[in-house]
Amino acid sequence: MTAGIDDIAIYIPRLYIDAIDFAKARGLDPVKLQKGLGVSQMAIVDANQDPACLAANACLKIMQRNKLSPEDIGRLYVSTESAFDESKAMNSYVIGMLEQVYGQGAFEHCGGIETKFACVSGSYALYDNTNWIRAGEADDKAALVVVSDIAKYDMGSSGEMTQGAGAVVMLLNDKPRLLEFDPKVTATSIIDEYDFYRPFGKETPIVHGQYSNLLYLIQVRKALDAYKKKVVSTGLIKIEPGETILDHMDYINMHLPYSNMGKKALAYMVRHEWRQLPRWKRILQEIGMDEPVPKDPRGTIESVLGDAEFMAKDHEFTKLFSKTQEFQEVYESKLASSLIASTMIGNLYTASLYLGFRSSLEFEYQKGIDLEGKRVGFGSYGSGASAMVFSGVIQPEYKQVVKDMNLEVEIGERKRLTWDEYENLHENKLSIDESMVHTKKEFVLIDVKTETESRGERRYVFNE
Ligand code: COA
Fold it and tell me: Separation of 215 CA from ligand 1 center, angstroms?
């Protein structure tokens, strides 16, 4: 049985901090954010929003747009790394909110859990729900997988330049209009690491940014190698001499902690794949330097990052490689469109990869390209750390969904925060009833109980 993504919807909070305002307040060059990281605006949650209501707003949108009733949904999974409860799963909150609209008990039959593995858990949730459908367990029902996060870093930290917030929900079924997942090729890698983590009770993560960047690249490359073996052994793809697996992916979507990380990751993977090909000699000639190698042959992340000479040379090599016509062609045709939404919204942790997919669909369609039959590769990464590489094929009915996509309309009207407003929100100085905007037809948080017996209970309403 086949399965995949039938539709995709996003919910982005109505507040943002502009890169120019951010840079001014932090004494940075705005070009570092805009061009260096690819960050123009970062979405910020209001005082009456949490990841559960972002997720519920996205779910309501996709259900209403597709005229779905709760009976049509057999599973609702929420993937997040912004959980606020160690036990009660976030999907139960989402169901509680949706039942305010659809009636109490309307989702009683619907199973699901909250999944966690930093930014990669949404991909595991998609995979598990796809297989639930493929196994014939779905009983003609669809699954909703919603990825929802608030990427919030300490004030003044280097991660603060890469914040964002929002939710992306995907409707999965056995006759997907958008993308059918390739069977039996999903590949993973896993390792016990501390590149980025958030200990119990801490609102913001502990981050080793450059370490995390490099670990991301290594883990995704390992998963790509495993994926390659699977596509060859299953006969899904035949890689001819002189070709690489990337030649068989029409589009590539990468996890995007910030937009430019997608380009860095693509450059790293393309280098890895092209190194064995005859074309590499020509590219090295064009670049005018040999590919640098770290001094320490063990090549641990610490030793690589500590090798200042290698790091400087590798940085120079990557810059020159990224400017080659061969790489530019790959970048423009396979990746660039997926980065647009991220520059406008920022980091969405679990949802970043899927915001990128959504962005790619809209902006490639706008170019007038026929997307039917195109293979889309996904490179998912979660700190801690695990990567997942998988793929799918765009379906003949995709136009029914993609023709109406309009990112700006879907984001809606937004308020540009002043620095003081941003600081107040970041430092949780506003109470829930002091929200900056008053939205309609959206779920918002109205109370978090503090009494001993009910501590942590959350109440939400649907603003009519
Ligand atoms: N004009 C243009 N570009 C500039 C610039 C300027 N004035 N100043 C710096 N840049 C460029 C740098 O060259 C670099 O680009 P490059 O990597 O292509 O060379 C980019 O801007 C970022 O600068 P850098 O000095 O590397 O930033 P940083 O070390 O201060 O912080 C992160 C970057 C990503 C490490 C940091 O924001 C972070 O920790 N983020 C959260 C963790 C994360 O997202 N990890 C990813 C794995 S999930």
Answer: 15
